[in-house]
Amino acid sequence: MSAEALPASGRLSATFGRLFVHQLRGEQRVFWRNREAAFFIFLFPLLLFLLLGSVYSGRIYGVPAAQALLAGLIGYGCANTAFAGLAIQLVLRRENGILKRLRSTPLPPATYIASLLVSTLVVFALQTIALFLLGAALYGTPFPSKVASLAATIVIGSAAFAALGASTAAVIRSSEGSSAVVNFILLPMAFLSGAFGPTLHYPPVLRAIGDVLPLKYYIELVNAVYLHNEALWSRPWALAVLCAWGVGGLVFALLRFRWEPYGT
Amino acid sequence: MTAIAVSGLRKSYGDLAAVRGIDFEIEEGEVFGLLGPNGAGKTTTVEILEGYRSRDAGELTVLGHDPERPGADFRERIGVVLQQSQLWQNLTVRETHAMFAGYYRRPRDVDEVIALVGLDEKRDARVKSLSGGQKRRLDLGIALVGDPDLVFLDEPTTGFDPAARRAAWQMIRSLRSLGKTVLLTTHYLDEAEQLADRVAVMRDGHIVRVGTPQELTTTELQTEIRYRRDGADVVVRTDEPTRELARLTAEAVARGEELDGLEVRRPTLEEVYLALTREQSETGE
User: For the domain with range B2-217, which CATH number is right: 3.30.930.10, 3.30.70.120, 3.40.640.10, 3.40.50.300?
Assistant: First the structure.
């Protein structure tokens, strides 16, 4: 059926679908073509899993240590890809003028942002699968039994961290410093949220800081679903905090987002 | 048909008045040059027309649209070359063109556009490996790939070596033969003179003159007659070069003298331009 044969609303959504798929394919090509970014964003959590998995032994949270670490790294990977990766990419694209250039094309902003988010999600979903395969092969970790709940957790978490990534991009003014700023936020957050191991023996001050961070609640959800085979909604409080961070990030990003470079 | 109509356009950034009430019209198929020094308001004007900026005052239509509230097909019909922009460094020339072609309902053939901007041999090269001039041609290619009716070129040849500039000029002339309307900004006089059907000279947010390059050079300044007498240069400026020259030569012939180094010259666009912009700054605007 040709586009002309569709009613107006159908044509609109057909256009959205076509542009979305076109842009998503382009974003995937751009991501994988940049070897350095692909290496750090995709392989780094896998590497951390290998390192931490060989250090920790015994049981954490009542499950084998490797399994608990795997859940933590699904948390770290999500923040690394959706928050850090997206923030750095958005700053870079804004400062080098790609965003401004795209604004003058018929590609709608919503389609562009949606394809960027889904592209990020594709990368992270592949990473999660790779983590499970690696864990199963090296440390005998089980595959998740609540697959739908885990998938929903990952989608919600990625969306929340992507919104926070877009917010962070809006306050970073130059591409030179973006990677440092983003990692300055990401690494302490991951550490304080228990992505690299349990925080039970941390000083109370550090645990209190961790208690307000979104990554802690995302990891709590992953732990519940993957380690304890609970449904996603068995932790409504954690889900609510994560969603609140996401909505806050989205509102801030919408208010402060800019297409044009700050630099001259 | 009028492609662009602007009247009373104003724009300030805080205390800085970048555009202070300008009027002009551009016909379909015309190559129109906005000429002026840096800071004259050219880029602000163009970015308002492209839909990037809002205006403080003035009436504006671009292809029948108000760029601040453009209809669905506005962006289908314009092509933009920004003053500075980079693209995805790791895509090839062809992939980059195909990426942009996908945004338009009726794009031109990608390979045809690549050939038009002279990047055939770089088709499969990554963007990051291109020279400055080649990147600028890529910018032009992706501006043309949607088959726009109106093309905005903001300082398309700044930083080019002379050979690259000639090549770019050739390409811009080919846009005219395709029937495109072109709005070109430049601070190079020769570029405006070579390419534009009409030129608007901007200074301090005003348009100080509009006309064809010929009109600007024939009406603005007096013709200059130079010769040497007793070892010194003599310069006569006149609105009536024929009469003045006849008088000078008649006198010389009567005296039995030769007018050494006799030369009659029309002012160049450069002299007109400098005179216009000097006149403006002397009035304290």
Answer: 3.40.50.300
